[in-house]
Design goal:
Pfam families: PHP_C. One of its GO terms (molecular function) is 5'-3' RNA exonuclease activity. This is Polymerase/histidinol phosphatase N-terminal domain-containing protein. The protein is α/β, with parallel strands linked by helices and 214 residues long. The chain has one domain: TIM Barrel (Alpha-Beta Barrel). The chain has six helices and nine strands; from the N terminus they run βαβββαβαβαββαβα. α1 links the parallel β1 and β2. The chain is globular and about 40 Å long.
């Protein structure tokens, strides 16, 4: 079995202090396979699956199993670029109103033209301050018959693995095979733990200031 944390940032994201060597050691220690989803950047590592948290004019979503960085700001053009390279569309924290770029603010979650492209919905994000956004995401995924994933949204080493799911071994370069094992994953086996609010409300802001000085 593989433990996958589907939403992890490196220090490429300006609000994260997950420097690569430290992140690699933490993932190894916790036996976590991370999907790397930096903000508007694709960071390739030798210990995880490449992705990107893409900010568009209609909200943000993650492209995972990417081979190239996505730079388009039109949401449908960005989706097309992900699909062209065989990647998957993963919706992170779609109902968290606290986040400036959450999809729930832009109406695309009610747009069937957008939803038909979605592969996976994040039904638990460890950095949601409240539980309600996660509950709404779960209900949404169920109502749309979409696959479910979870992610720690880790910005710091101690957050890695706060959310993960167990799946059978699969070819890490094959997104279609990942969808098959995800479909069979036991939702009762999802591990979900909320990050401390200080990580979101204090530490992330401090990290931005510190990195400006580096």
């Amino acid at each position: 079995m593989i433990k996958i944390d589907m939403h992890v940032h490196t220090n490429t994201s300006r609000c994260s202090m997950n420097f690569l060597e430290m992140l690699k050691k933490m993932c190894s220690r916790k036996h976590i396979l991370p999907i790397i989803t930096d903000h508007n950047a694709m960071t390739k590592v030798d210990f995880g699956i490449p992705g990107e948290e893409i900010s568009t004019e209609k909200g943000e979503f993650c492209g995972i199993f990417l081979t190239e960085e996505i730079q388009e700001k039109n949401i449908f053009e960005a989706v097309d670029k992900v699909k062209e390279q065989g990647g998957l569309i993963y919706l992170p924290h779609p109902f968290d109103w606290r986040r400036r770029k959450s999809l729930c603010k832009y109406g695309e979650l009610e747009n069937p033209e957008f939803i038909k492209n979605v592969d996976i919905v994040e039904v638990y994000n460890s950095r949601c301050v409240e539980q309600r956004p996660n509950d709404e995401a779960y209900s949404f995924a169920e109502s749309k018959n979409l696959l479910m994933g979870v992610g720690s949204d880790a910005h710091f080493p101690w957050e890695v693995g706060n959310a993960y799911l167990n799946v059978e071994d699969f070819d890490l370069d094959n997104p279609k095979e990942f969808l098959k094992v995800l479909k069979k994953a036991d939702k009762n086996g999802f591990y979900c733990k909320r990050s401390h609010p200080s990580n979101m409300l204090v530490c992330s802001k401090l990290s931005k200031r510190i990195k400006k000085l580096i």
